[in-house]
Amino acid sequence: MNAFFVKGYTVDALAMILLCIAVWVLITRARAGMKIPAINKIAGLEALDEAVGRATEMGRPVHTTHGLGGVSDAETFAFWGVLGHVANMCAKYDCRLINTCRSYLVMTVNTEIIKQSYLEAGRPDAFNPDDVRYLSPSQFGYTTAVVGIFAREKPAANIMVGYFYAEALTLAEVGSQVGAVQISGTTSTAQLPFFVVACDYTLIGEEIYAASAYISKNPVLVGSLVAEDWYKILIIAAVLVGTVIANVIGPKDKNWLAEFLKK
Amino acid sequence: MHISSDYGVWLGAILTFFILSYLYKENPFFRFAEHLFVGVATGFGMTGDWDQYLKPAITKDIIKDGKFWEILPILFGLLIYFQFFPKLSWLARFPMSWWVGYGSGYVLAFSPAPFITQINNSFQRFAVDGSPGQTINNIIFWVMLMGTLCYFVFTVNREKNKVFGYPAWIGRWAIMIGLGAAFGGTVMARISLFIGRLQFLLGNWLGAVK
Q1: For residue B175, what are the domain limits?
Q2: Model pLDDT, residue A38
Q3: Residue A38 and residue B155: Cβ atoms within 8 Å?
Q4: Cβ A210–B146 below 8 Å, yes or no?
Q5: Element at A171 (helix H, strand E)
Q6: Residue A44: helix, strand or coil by DSSP?
Q7: Average pLDDT, stretch A49-56?
Q8: Average per-residue pLDDT in chain A?
């Protein structure tokens, strides 16, 4: 074994290759126009249009944030899918979009995404770079600044998708106080309860990763999501088989599937 | 009661009240504290970045140790400032692309590792000799795990496919129970934060409690 192939990660590597193959197969099928399964309804994502529509009617802005995640976090990637869609709708409806950031790197990417969405909607002139705001690298410095923005600008919709820490409840609570429709989503199990309590719709964990495919209905993205689902079904099957072996054959050290997964 | 004579404690107490004044409504005192906090935190972050990253890279790595190649990533990073020049803003996309690519690669390389271990650890024995409590725990764990996994399968219609539908229903309840338990735990932590602030006001500031 050399440094390139680390012992103990064989199954991880195989799992990754298998997922890549499944994604490739499903994307190829989707591109060829072959039938691929539909995605179940996700209420939180259905409500995005409604939230932007409400903000437009009320003449108040839409606020979006990805929380405290960095540019390398998977949750931030999921947020970008949502941000593109929301920015596109805001551009079409002529609704003001405020995006607040804690990370200057994420802010730079957000600016490009929003600018591109306005361009795609045919309204590049409506894009206001001052509404993409880097507030503070400090967790509660950022939170305090968002609280102030909420109090002064009173957004009618608050969309929070990404990775959140202790600021989650403060943001959701303040959004609720100013009467915003709130759509949230995070993989942070410690913060999810607060979102469920304080927000109108909450995307739980994995649902945020399905957002891009669900919103765009793009066959290629949907194909990737279906591949992930196949993978999850494989995991369910593995857990089922492993548990049957553990209970029928005997102690865990005799479980061949457990031993295989350690390789 | 012994009121503090430390101006730092007084400043902390006054700013605490400025922030808490938001509970009444947004006002100039809250706004002052908000902007002060944001400014100080940003300044602190910038000096931290300089002290921890830039200064060691320039003074130690490049000048002292002669690692001149480190100038290249610094120059590459500086490209991000081209976003302020509309005609050359496309140059800012290169460092951004690098970061996003790095992030994707990092997630792909390191995310699978924990979940293979998690799959392995989910092979629970239902009947644990001499420990009925552990037996019940293992069964609850396994049922909730399978239910939650089924809940997150997005492309199987749960209404029609009962093989996934029933476990997903259990999964939904499992998630809600789990979130409820987490809610209680975190609320307790938040209350302890509030108690900490009260201790500061009543103890450090007013000297009313020890």
Answers
A1: 131-210
A2: 83
A3: yes
A4: no
A5: helix A167-177
A6: helix
A7: 96
A8: 90
